[in-house]
Design a protein that fits this description.
9 strands, alpha/beta, membrane, ABC1_TM_dom, cell membrane, ABC transporter transmembrane region fold, binds adenosine-5'-triphosphate, Type_1_exporter, 2 domains
Length: about 650
């Protein structure tokens, strides 16, 4: 036994840490599973208790019915006395009716509690996932996360909800049927019950192996879902690159792993039945042999023997049911490992206990000597000593090469993460002192990749303000240039946009996102590469609505492309810290800088000591000239001549290189 357990633990560990099984969580005990999920049954426990009561009532009725059967055998069949038949016969019928009704009520009420528990559990896990920084889901395979939210959550329900009801009622049935058998002949019952431990030993042996097989099945199910999800979501890419066969092969590979895991489960559960049946048959043969002996000796009636055998016939499946429950528990525990792993993940940031609501701000954004490294990447900070100010209504352009940390600025402003050094301020208040909800009410981000849901155009525009009226939605759509093309859609604003808005063109998707931002009406706007993936002509169509959106808002425009810089905007450059420079600055004890670059302009970029000295001078809040007027909306642009490829972050004359 001990060896089996050790082996099972070893295998689980191996699965947990194998390269391909990264998402497989370490095993947790049953107790831990209950400690984690039992509180979620609050309010549903009366339903589970009622389920137990009805199931127990049904079992008691069966015990009584068998007793009547023995009575009929001895008093009616053996004595051929028909008079004595009717009363026990009708009583039997009455008992069968009550047992049927109780069994139905028990099953339905248990299902009622179980389904509600499932709903609650899924809501809890999904709700928790929503509190984690978006990177948590991005780093994982979506299909695997979805498998956790469906199959694994169901497995937990089968353990903590309906599984518990089943365990209690099966245990009660074992007690009743064994008790009734004892009442008929305690000595005979003792002989047969002595074989019950054999059932338990067999199920324990099987459960240990079943648990490993179940963990493997859970994991491969997640991997298979991931391939399906990725293959379907990226179908245009798959077909355009002629990778259909490769994707099918990938699915087949994962499917084969899943098949092997399922087959080993089927092998175990298929073998379990016959092994138990052999033990059961041994018991029955012993009972019949001893019973025949006792009848011949006149110490037992035929009715007594038949009733005894009938109790055993019900007792063994109940004992077997307990054993099977151990298999279900093993499977459920594998699922609960994976859910607990999700629930254990802590959000990168939470609201401070004394956090206050931000209110509708003016939109002054300040980064004050901000330093930040992503979790687990302390040696490669994404930002270091970055300082700049965006005044209310100003358009601040942040440019720089890929990987310089531009998008990271938006994540810090939204408080997906907190900086390791320095502060991010909104209207003078450190964002760590504001509630995240109120902070995010003040900031609208237009992401690099336009994010739409599969609802209608109207649903997508109103996403940030679900209570908005149709007039407000249309006004926002007009500002964003959506209204014109919506007229041509088959169902106007009610036209479904398809999965992730795929039924719209790239430019249309971007304009719907702009309308959503207009309707939200936040004082701070972050545009993260808003023209990515749009051709020159489409970009020009989006430019005018974007200009209208920016009007009167503090706008932080993140872009590689300085052609997109609106007139009157201030530009700062950001570049990643080269390794040698990081070491040099560290040795010199000189803080890394984000240098501000205004239209009034400094010269070209500096190097060496000059730059370090400048870094010291420019750390802290940077004086920024305020534009008197909000930036002019930009209309469609003239097509330009193709440009020479730019060096990353070449300072424009009169601009400022805000480098590390
Ligand atoms: N979730 C993450 N976990 C770990 N590192 C990350 C994460 N997101 C970004 N990084 C790293 O942080 C650095 C800055 O990334 P960021 O996305 O901010 O750059 P960027 O300037 O916006 O680049 P691009 O212009 O290509 O979008 C990069 O080195 C990147 O690899």
């Amino acid at each position: 036994m001990l060896t089996v357990h050790r082996e099972s633990r070893r295998l689980s560990r191996r699965l947990s840490f194998s390269a391909s099984g990264r998402e497989l969580a370490p095993a947790v005990t049953l107790r831990r599973t209950f400690r984690e999920f039992w509180p979620d049954t609050r309010g549903l426990r009366p339903l589970f208790a009622a389920g137990v009561v009805f199931a127990v009532l049904a079992a008691l009725c069966e015990v009584a019915a068998i007793r009547l059967f023995g009575h009929i055998t001895d008093e009616v069949l053996t004595t051929r006395n028909l008079e004595a038949f009717w009363v026990p016969a009708f009583s039997w019928l009455g008992l069968a009716t009550v047992a049927g009704a109780a069994s139905f009520a028990g099953a339905y009420i248990t299902a009622l509690g179980a389904e509600r528990f499932l709903l609650r559990l899924r809501d809890r896990v999904f709700g928790h996932l929503q509190t984690l920084a978006p990177d948590y889901a991005e780093k994982r395979r979506l299909g695997d996360l979805m498998a956790r939210l469906t199959d694994d959550v169901e497995a937990i329900e089968e353990l903590v909800g309906s599984g518990l009801v089943k365990a209690i009622t099966t245990a009660a049935s074992v007690v009743f049927f064994a008790g009734a058998a004892f009442l008929v002949r305690w000595d005979l019952a003792l002989v047969t019950l002595a074989l019950i431990p054999a059932f338990l030993v067999v199920s324990k042996l099987f459960a240990a192996r079943f648990r490993v097989a179940a963990a493997r099945e859970r994991h491969s199910n997640g991997a298979m879902n991931s391939v399906l999800e990725e293959g379907l979501a990226n179908q245009p890419l798959v077909q355009a690159y002629n990778r259909q066969r490769d994707e099918a092969r990938r699915l087949h590979r994962e499917g084969r792993t899943w098949l092997r895991a399922n087959l080993s489960q089927a092998w175990l559960s298929g073998l379990y039945g016959p092994v138990v049946q052999v033990i059961e048959t041994v018991c029955l043969i012993i009972v019949l042999g001893v019973g025949a002996w006792e009848i011949a000796a006149g110490r037992l009636t035929i009715g007594g023997l038949l009733a005894f055998a009938a109790y055993l016939a019900l007792l063994y499946p109940a004992v077997q049911g307990l054993g099977e429950l151990a298999l279900t528990v093993s499977e459920a525990a594998a699922g609960s490992d994976r859910i607990i792993e999700v629930l254990r993940a802590r959000p990168a940031v939470t609201d401070a206990p004394a956090a206050v609501a931000a209110g509708q701000g003016r939109g002054r954004v300040e980064f004050d000597r901000v330093g930040f490294a992503y979790p687990g990447r302390a040696s490669r900070p994404a930002l270091h000593e970055v300082s700049f100010v965006a005044e209310p209504g100003e358009v601040l352009v942040i440019t720089g090469p890929s990987g310089a940390g531009k998008s990271t600025l938006a994540k810090l402003l939204l408080r997906f993460y907190d900086p390791d050094e320095g502060r991010v301020l909104l209207d003078g208040a450190d964002v760590r002192g504001l509630t995240r909800e109120s902070l995010r009410e003040n900031v609208t981000v237009l992401h690099q990749e336009t994010m739409l849901f599969s609802g209608s155009v109207r649903d997508n525009i109103a996403y940030g303000r679900p209570a908005a009226s149709m007039e407000e939605i249309i006004r926002a759509a007009e500002t964003a240039g959506v209204h014109d093309f919506v007229q041509d859609l088959p169902r106007g604003y009610d036209t479904p946009v398809g999965q992730r808005g795929r039924l719209l063109s790239g430019g249309q998707r971007q304009r719907v996102a702009i309308a959503r931002a207009v309707l939200r009406d936040a004082p701070v706007l972050v545009l993260d590469e808003p023209m990515t993936g749009l051709d020159e002509e489409t970009a020009a169509q989006v430019m005018a609505p974007l200009g209208r959106l920016m009007t009167g808002r503090t706008t932080i425009l993140i872009t590689h492309d300085l052609r997109q810089v609106p007139s009157g905007a201030r530009v700062i450059g950001l570049r990643p810290v080269p390794r040698h420079e990081r070491i040099r600055l560290k040795r010199a004890g000189v803080p890394r800088l984000a240098r501000d670059r205004t239209g009034a302009g400094h010269g070209a970029s500096r190097t060496g000591r000059q730059e370090a000295a400048h870094a010291v001078r420019s750390s802290g809040p940077v004086p920024v000239p305020l534009p008197r007027e909000p930036p002019e909306p930009r209309g469609p642009r003239e097509p330009r001549e193709p440009r020479e490829p730019r060096e990353p972050l070449v300072p424009e004359p009169g601009g400022v290189d805000a480098g590390p």
